[in-house]
């Protein structure tokens, strides 16, 4: 995923509006001048088509298939056949019972809620950040180009790859997943409140501070996301982890679907109220900071039920 966070923003940042960036290759009166964002979309579509083709020949990793029931029933004695039917009905009852029990498993559900909160915050930030960075300074933005924003996001993606590989394992070993989430949530909230003041910086300090802040914010989110997944997996037995992860990702997808719409509404409102008592750009990041505070509060009892192996933390 981290590699995608490096390549994706680079494609969008460097290939958007090609007639302005590469006029020798893409004349202003060409197709790409009329549709300035077609080139990055084309590259992504070609990449997705290549993935689709590769999936056709992707070998199946699960080779434990059920035997043919007709053939099995013909060769099976009556007593064994009745026993097999009984086992199958018991398995179905156990499966339905365990699915219902997941909703009663508060350690699991509380960690899923934490997962949804941080994903909502991260997706809302991902929606707002490029809009804010490219907005004019008169609206509280940074007046950056799409190329600048793409470069910042690419550097941020590369940092996630390094952080998850080398830093996070040691961090969670020392602090534990819960304390790591608490520390990063409070620092994330404080960091978000500093973003509106970056509009007063000029190059090159603006890009230096923005890159550092973007890297920190992304890795704070990665810390809580990964820690919440650890808590989820330790809240259920091995046999229920597939269902639990499916439930977690379903609810997370809903929060990620709501976040861009909510963030877009807040950003649109902020653009029209830049000169109110609390400037609009500060309200945007105050909104994100409030979500981070909720995320921090949720890491404590009685909201987050801690699995037995993490009770010492």
Automatic annotation (TrEMBL):
Phylogenetic placement of the source organism: Eukaryota, Viridiplantae, Streptophyta, Embryophyta, Tracheophyta
Keyword DNA damage (UniProt): no
Lineage top rank: taxon: Eukaryota
Transmembrane segments: 37-59, 180-199, 205-231, 251-271, 283-304
UniProt xrefs under Pfam families: MFS_1
Protein name (Swiss-Prot/TrEMBL): Major facilitator superfamily (MFS) profile domain-containing protein
Gene Ontology molecular functions: transmembrane transporter activity
Location within or outside the cell: Membrane
A Gene Ontology term for the protein's cellular component: membrane
Keyword tags: Membrane, Transmembrane, Transmembrane helix, Transport
Membrane topology note: Multi-pass membrane protein
InterPro entries: MFS, MFS_trans_sf
Keyword Transit peptide annotated: no
């Amino acid at each position: 995923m981290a590699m995608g966070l490096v390549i994706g923003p680079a494609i969008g940042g460097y290939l958007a509006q090609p007639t302005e960036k590469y006029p020798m290759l893409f004349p202003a009166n060409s197709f790409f001048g009329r549709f300035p964002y077609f080139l990055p979309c084309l590259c992504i579509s070609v990449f997705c088509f290549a993935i689709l083709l590769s999936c056709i020949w992707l070998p199946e990793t699960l080779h434990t298939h059920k035997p043919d029931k007709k053939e099995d029933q013909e060769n099976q004695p009556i007593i064994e056949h009745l026993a097999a039917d009984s086992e199958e009905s018991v398995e179905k009852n156990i499966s339905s019972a365990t699915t219902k029990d997941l909703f009663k498993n508060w350690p699991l559900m509380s960690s899923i809620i934490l997962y949804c909160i941080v994903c909502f915050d991260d997706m809302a930030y991902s929606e707002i950040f490029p809009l804010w960075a490219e907005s004019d300074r008169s609206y509280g933005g940074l007046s950056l180009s799409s190329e600048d924003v793409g470069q910042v996001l690419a550097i941020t993606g590369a940092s996630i790859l390094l952080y998850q590989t080398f830093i996070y394992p040691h961090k969670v070993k020392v602090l534990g997943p819960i304390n790591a989430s608490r520390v990063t949530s409070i620092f994330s909230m404080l960091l978000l409140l500093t973003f509106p003041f970056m509009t007063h910086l000029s190059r090159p300090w603006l890009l230096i501070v923005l890159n550092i802040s973007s890297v920190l914010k992304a890795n704070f989110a990665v810390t809580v996301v990964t820690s919440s997944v650890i808590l989820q997996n330790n809240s259920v037995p091995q046999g229920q982890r597939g269902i639990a992860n499916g439930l977690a990702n379903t609810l997370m997808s809903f929060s990620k679907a709501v976040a861009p719409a909510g963030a877009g509404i807040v950003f649109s409102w902020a653009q029209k109220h830049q000169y109110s008592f609390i400037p609009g750009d500060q309200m945007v990041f105050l909104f994100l900071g409030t979500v981070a505070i909720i995320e921090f509060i949720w890491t404590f009892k009685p909201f987050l039920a801690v699995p037995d192996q993490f009770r010492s933390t």
